[in-house]
Amino acid sequence: MERYEVGLAANRIYDFVWNEFCDWYIEFSKISLYSADENKRRNTVSVLVRVLRDVQKLAHPIKPFITAEIYDNLPECAKDAEDIMLAPYPETKDYKHYTMDAHRMVQVMETIRQIRALRAEMGVKPSRRVTIYIKPNGTVPASAMRKTGEYLIKLASGTEFKIVSEKPENCATVVAAFGEVYLPLGELVDFEKELERLKGELETARSELDRAQSKLSNGNFVAKAPKAVVDAEKSKTEKFAERISVLMKKIEEITNMKK
């Protein structure tokens, strides 16, 4: 803002509000907000309102009317001026940095993304909830691991989480920074439908591989086509060969689970 790079400032604020505050922090906070611990709920609400207030002040020079409206509707106890125009602009303060906690939360968020990606890949609806098993690798204390389980249940569609020493049978695996996470396939998918879906993907991948290999086996194509086009076809053969390998392995796993 001091250099009048308003666009960059607006992008920073947007990225924080959308990708951190709304996407993650509000969702994580619901665990405390719905708990029986009144002190925990009060502290969480305090932080949420404080962040919401300060975001309005940060963004006020960029979108004054919207921020003024939101500020006016904040609880009176949260305001630090009768009007946002009179409120002090947020300043950097030397707060205590919870580096390790922040690092662990990044790990939790990445694990949730991985679980969601696995579920999406398998065509599992978000509403379908399953047991989540965790096999810790010893890098995270037991208390933090229990908290991690709470977040996974809330944001990765779990019914419960259990800490195990070995991988349960018939489970899909997500490798996380703090250990391995297992999802029971029997609770996730209909084996027959999943096999049908995977075989369809396998047929498509084989067809694409054949098409790319056919082009590369054509001497005229390789000699006359631009290098970038030839390289793209070579890249396709690698991509689809790898995809075929992955699909065949998944089909074999599910076939064995059905037995």
Question: How would you sum up this structure in a few lines?
Answer:
The chain has 259 residues and is of the alpha+beta class.
What does this structure look like?
This protein is an alpha+beta fold and 259 residues long. The chain is 63% helix and 10% strand. The chain has a 4-stranded mixed beta sheet with strand order 2-1-4-3. α1 runs antiparallel to α2, α2 runs antiparallel to α3 (64-72) and α4 packs across α5. The protein is flat. The model has no long low-confidence stretch (mean pLDDT 90).
What descriptors fit this protein?
single chain; 259 residues; alpha+beta; 9 helices; 63% helix; flat
Helix proportion range: 55-70%
Low-confidence stretches: none
Please, how many helices?
9
Please state the oligomeric state of the protein chains shown: single chain
Question: Mind sketching the topology for me?
Answer:
Layout: H1 6-33, H2 38-59, H3 64-72, H4 99-121, E1 130-136, H5 142-155, E2 158-163, E3 171-176, E4 179-184, H6 185-188, H7 191-216, H8 219-224, H9 227-258
Helix pairs in contact: 1-2, 2-3, 4-5, 7-9
